[in-house]
């Protein structure tokens, strides 16, 4: 995505610091910049604005403010660059756990805004890709387990070998124009209904 097409939200109660970030963003080619200085109803306002990326600047955050921002970070599923003037190890770990893409301590300078934002977007995209791949791998593993259970049911009920049970699942799926895992799910569900105390 080109910088000028990104919708950037800046969250900063300090208007002077917000203007530094805004100027850095505009100089870097980010034209769609919205600033929120009032934290009231922040989650709702973020949803309404629907930004592509969020920049949060916290001059001297206390634990409550940080935790509030981390909760928002968990909820919005967007790249987030967070600037703070001071921090500690626990806050850094909490930021990482909350999904903050870039956590910059004492680094608010106009010329650094663009590279930090680009890095935040890249890290967010990489993390999102890894999360998707992990979910796909988990789904494939669950599908394999389900197919194994269905094969086991067929082997016991019909006296088939493992290969014969799989071939029957595959033929049935092809005949019904469905996926093998869908047939396996139907078989496992039916078996549990017919024998709720059984080993399915």
TrEMBL record:
This is Response regulator receiver and ANTAR domain protein. PANTHER family: PTHR43367, TWO-COMPONENT RESPONSE REGULATOR-LIKE APRR6-RELATED. The modification 4-aspartylphosphate is found at residue 57. GO terms for molecular function: RNA binding. GO terms for biological process: phosphorelay signal transduction system. The keyword Phosphoprotein applies. The lineage of its organism: Bacteria, Pseudomonadati, Pseudomonadota, Alphaproteobacteria, Hyphomicrobiales. Keywords: Phosphoprotein. Residues 7-121 form the Response regulatory domain. It comes from Rhizobium lusitanum. It comes from the Bacteria. SUPFAM superfamilies: CheY-like (SSF52172). InterPro entries: ANTAR, CheY-like_superfamily, Sig_transdc_resp-reg_antiterm, Sig_transdc_resp-reg_receiver, WH-like_DNA-bd_sf. It holds the Pfam family Response_reg. Residues 127-188 form the ANTAR domain.
